Structure formats: structure tokens, C-alpha cells
Amino acid sequence: MVREVFDLRPKGIIKMLDLKRPIYQDTAAYGHFGREDDSFTWEKVDQIEALKS
Q1: d(Cα 23, Cα 4) in Å, to the nearest integer?
Q2: pTM score, two decimals?
């Protein structure tokens, strides 16, 4: 089921999480936990409905 919803190849993960954007400086100090910033794509739950069905 997860493989049907997500492209788990390295290229697919990079594209899905938009990892080529230079956003890592924001996480360099104090990490990303507890931040309300929308730029952390790995925190999004936009595929939750696809996984529920």
C-alpha cells in the first residue's frame, strides 16, 4: 500500500520532499522539532487520506 502512494526510489523521495531546496540552514541550530515553519516538507501529512483508504 505504501509503495502505491509513495515513490520510494531515491529520485522519488528527493522530488516528493523537495530536498534540493537549500532549507537545511534553518535546522542547523536546535533542529526542526517544535517549529511552526511550513518549509519542512517531511512534516507534511498531505497523503494521509490516500493511506487511510
Answers
A1: 28
A2: 0.60
Q: How many domains does the chain have?
A: 1
Asked whether residue 31 is assigned to any structural domain, the reply reads: no
Answer yes or no: is 30 within a domain: no
12: which residues sit within 8 A by CB, 6+ positions away? 6
Residues 6 or more apart in contact with residue 5 via CB below 8 angstroms: 47, 50, 51
pLDDT tens-digit map of 3-53: 889 999 999 999 998 888 877 777 767 666 666 766 777 778 888 888 887
